[in-house]
Amino acid sequence: MRQENVAALAGDRIVADNRDAMPHSPHLSVRVLGPARVTVDGAAAPPELLWRKHLALLVYLARSPRKSRTREHLVGLLWSDRDEKQARHSLSEALRVLRQVLGDAALQADVDQVRLATDGVTLDCDRFAALAQRGEWDAAAALVEGEFLEGLALPGANQFETWLGTERALWRAQGLEALIQCAEAQLARGDTAAAARAALGAVGLDATSEPAARAAMRALALAGDRAGALRVAEGLARALGDALDAAPSPELAHLVERIREARVGRRVLAAPPAARPRPPLLGRAAELAAGAAAWQRARRGRGQVVLVHGEPGEGKTRLIEELAARARLDDATVAAARAVPADRKRECSAVAGLLAAGLADAPGLASAPPTALATLGRLNADLGARFRGSGAEPPLPAMEVGDAFAAAAIAAAEERPLLLVLDDAQWLDAASLALLPALARDTAPHRVLLLLGVAWGVPDGERFDVLQARLGRDLEGAVIRLGRLDQAALAQLVAWSAPTYGADERERLARRVERDTAGIPLLAVALLEAVAAGYRLAPDAPAWPSAARTLIDSLPGTLPPAVVGAVCVRFRALPPPAQQVLGAAAALGGRGDMSRLGRATGLEHDAVAQALDLLEWDRWLAADAQGYVFAAPIERDIVLQEMLTPGQARRYRDQSVA
After folding, report:
1. Distance of CA 259 to the CA centre of its chain
2. φ, ψ (nearest 5 deg) of residue 238
3. Which of 21, 284, 357, 487 has its CA 20 to 30 A from that of 417?
């Protein structure tokens, strides 16, 4: 008779002659949050251990109280379809296989009880539970690869199937929470791509989960994948209809509407054909959190003022865009305008820009006092036409522009939370700057956030000192000061731009990017995109800026050759019409509208529109209702100096006024 059969008849009491010779007790690790995977001391488990009932027995014991069960219970659980003798023999054979792998000390079995040693088997679900309890959502979410014991089924073992269904429901709920929390945490750090991966994992775990769908839709929309976000909504509707004969909630339907309406900029609704993926907002977790917290306070009726300060290229506009995109998804009215140097000579340029950028069309604006609407109508022709009287009525009394603007903002905020954005506010005219403190004061009890982007190193920067000094005293808000990216953030950018690189290659590239760009986000992204497109960096380039020069002194004239080359590579990668439009925008300077750029280039209207969509998506140009400007003056200088001849620039300027 075979030794194992003797052992089975003897109640599984095996005494191994070579037990003392074993160097240690093997350790089993079992992945159960997804398709099962078993390793023994890091190596693949013996095939016999992976038989369905052997695996089921192992996991069930590991999940049992005190990791112990009676023989009678285990027989009824897994072999109830056999007679008692066969069932007990099958259990003994399964225990033999487990003991052969684990050793006698790790699996103890007597006439009545079967138990696992406390440290013999590790389940990933136990580690998941510990991580989730500590709120370490990223690490917990990384363990969720699917359903509990995905793909395992024992059709003849009804009790086990019932237990398995209960376990799957438990771990599905906990896995969903971890993935959604992870997605929210990634969004808070600005990594929309990672957030989308986590949220889509939650959708894959439970296609009927509306919280998972909402998290995925927000992440995809913020990443610029509007079509992907809408596909998630369609998938949820199908899953709810098929499984539960239900429909998504009104809240989700409203989010769908907001995503359909949302724009990346002035015209762009989704990624243009053949557009590059947009780089994530990395290394700005604290700054993004401060802005997002101010927005949440504003949504609750505590008006806020946020000033975003940064040197050229440090990502001021990028952070503002992210906050505005989130506000749009939160069902806010967003009016975003960007000042240019010429605005210093336009009285009330900020009011006119914000009216044109969306405030004039805000729901609830009609409830503003007629005198306020009449005053603002003088700055916005469309608004004036909508709220102009019949002509037979006596003229309305005059009203101060600042008071009228505050009244309009308050009326709009009564209907929806309101975000007013003024980027490059250092170029605002004196009248606009003078009304900002009063606007902040008057809207303080309302759902209004005034978000100002101000560049360092510009003349008259002290004009914002009065407003900034009041923050924390009679005004709520925050001052967000941007800086250069640290090594960790640059390493993340390298991993994003060069996912096929090995660890050593990524480390070398991150060090080189830091040396060539001084950690300026704009330059780092441009350099990495060029490297990804095949641009080769010179091996002996000196560090930039030089020790004798400050960053401001070094911009824009003494940029490192690697950065200049990278921007030129990006320019040459554009389609010819986009190169022409971008060259014309560089030559014209300031703010240019579509018709002026069309005259300068001689291109048809549709060609100009498609080129502008691509340039806006790629963040060459930024747009508001008044036109297009270079998102980064640094890049405009490079294009003007390196990619255009003086004759080309002169022709663009001459043709624009023809």
Report:
1. 15
2. -65, -45
3. 284
Place of tokens 């967003």: 334
Give the residue from 444, 441, 369, 374 showing the smallest Cα distance to 407. Answer: 369
Calpha distance 319→341 (Å, rounded): 21
264 pLDDT tier (thresholds 50, 70, 90):
low
Written in H, E and C, the secondary structure of 544-569 is CCCCCCCHHHHCCCCCCHHHHHHHHH
| pLDDT tens string 351-374 | 999 999 999 999 999 999 999 999
Q: Where are the alpha helices (DSSP H) in 300-380?
A: 316-329, 349-356, 370-377
Please state the separation of Cα 590 from the chain's center in Å: 31
User: Rounded mean pLDDT of 106-129?
Assistant: 90
What whole-number distance in Å separates Cα of residue 337 and Cα of residue 593?
Answer: 14
End-to-end CA distance of the chain: 105
Helix (H) or strand (E) holding 123: strand 121-123
CA distances for 601 relative to 130, 546, 605, 635, angstroms: 62, 39, 10, 20
Q: How far apart are CA 373 and CA 387, in angstroms?
A: 7
For 433, the token pair is 């700057």
- Calculate mean pLDDT across residues 312-317: 90
**Cα-based distances in Å from 8 to 85, 88, 91, 215, 450:** 12, 9, 9, 53, 78
In a 3-state reduction of DSSP, which class is residue 148?
Answer: strand
**DSSP character at residue 396:** P
Residue type at 94? A
DSSP sequence for 293-314 = HHHHHHHTT--EEEEEEE-TTS
| Number of C-beta neighbours around residue 657 at 10 A | 9
Q: For the chain, count helices (H), then strands (E).
A: 29, 14
Judged by DSSP in three states, 522 sits in helix
Short-list 657, 633, 638, CA closest to 339: 633
Residues pairing with 70 in the sheet: 113
Q: In terms of C-beta density within 10 A (0-12 exposed, 13-18 middle, 19 or more buried), how is residue 23 classed?
A: exposed
- In 3-state terms, the chain is what percent helix, strand and coil (to 5)? 55, 10, 30
DSSP state of 121: E
Running DSSP on this structure, what letter comes out for residue 475? B
Mean pLDDT over residues 335-362, rounded? 92
- Which of 178-182, 186-190, 570-574 has the highest mean predicted lDDT (pLDDT)? 178-182
pLDDT at 538 over 90: no
Tokens of 67: 């990791």
Contact call for residues 7 and 17 (beta carbons, < 8 A): no
How many CB atoms lie under 10 A from the CB of residue 104? 18
- Assign 204 a pLDDT band (cuts: 50, 70, 90): very high
Query: Which residues, in sequence order, are bridge partners of residue 471?
Result: 475
Nearest to 353 by CA among 328, 379, 322, 334: 379
Provide the CA 418 distance to its chain's centre, in angstroms: 22
**What confidence tier does 558 reach under pLDDT thresholds 50, 70, 90?**
confident
| Domains and their CATH numbers in the chain | 3-126 (1.10.10.10), 285-481 (3.40.50.300), 485-658 (no CATH)
Beta bridge partners of 451: 306, 421
Q: How far apart are CA 98 and CA 25, in angstroms?
A: 13
Please list the alpha-helical segments (H only) found in 143-249.
Answer: 158-189, 192-205, 210-222, 226-244
